[in-house]
Design goal:
Elements lengths: L4 H10 L7 H13 L2 H17 L1 E2 L6 E2 L5 H4 L4 E8 L2 H10 L4 E5 L17 H9 L5 E4 L5 H14 L5 E4 L15 H9 L2 E2 L6
Parallel strand pairs: 3-4, 3-5, 5-6
Antiparallel strand pairs: 1-2, 6-7
């Protein structure tokens, strides 16, 4: 079936979303245009507001409407500890566990050379600069227990060790290949408490 040019453009635009193929985009487009134009307007306006107003926190890289997010500004947090996670969802999972009260650094992914995701895309230079500031005493690597997560943790360990900061890894109570969002809060909290130092010995 041939659709009008604007209809085709909307279908193509929707396919930028993860998991949305041509058939799904077709269904979404037809639903919005035929049955829910008001919802389409709301979606369009919310998307534009988010694109205009949401940025990365200058300290932790989480998505926020402020230059520095509320959590990073919270004086009740332990700013000497920095937990490195892959995604904002991972940060939220750790927060819900209640077992950690320090700061975070969100990589927004993991190392994946085949996808063009290297250290710069993950904000590693910013992470290293933050640690070099001298305020951080411990960096907790809480990347996922996947092959990519382990490779990312290994790379970060190599980069952080010369900075003479304690580098620890979340405990192995987390099942291999699992994602934080699928782990119960108690197990995640316990894994944080049982974290192990990695490789660096202080003089």
């Amino acid at each position: 079936m041939a659709y009008s040019p604007l209809t085709e453009q909307l279908m193509e635009a929707l396919q930028v979303l993860p998991g949305v193929g041509s058939r799904s985009a077709e269904r979404m487009t037809l639903h919005l245009l035929e049955r829910d134009r008001e919802g389409g307007q709301m979606l369009s306006q919310a998307l534009q507001r988010a694109l205009d107003g949401v940025m990365h926190c200058a300290r932790c890289r989480v998505l926020t409407e402020q230059a520095v997010c509320e959590l990073c500004q919270n004086d009740d947090r332990d700013h000497s500890r920095l937990c490195v996670v892959e995604t904002p969802q991972d940060r939220e999972a750790i927060e819900v566990s209640g077992g950690y009260l320090g700061d975070y650094f969100v990589l927004q992914g993991h190392l994946s050379p085949i996808d063009g995701i290297g250290p710069d895309e993950l904000g590693v230079p910013l992470l290293l600069e933050r640690v070099k500031s001298g305020d951080i005493e411990e960096v907790i690597l809480a990347t996922n227990a996947s092959m990519e997560g382990e490779a990312t943790a290994h790379y970060l360990t190599e980069q952080l060790q010369p900075l003479k900061v304690v580098v620890s890894r979340i405990a192995r109570g987390i099942p291999v290949g699992s994602e934080f969002g699928r782990i119960d809060s108690h197990s995640l909290s316990q894994a944080l408490q049982d974290r192990k130092p990695l490789g660096f010995e202080h003089d």
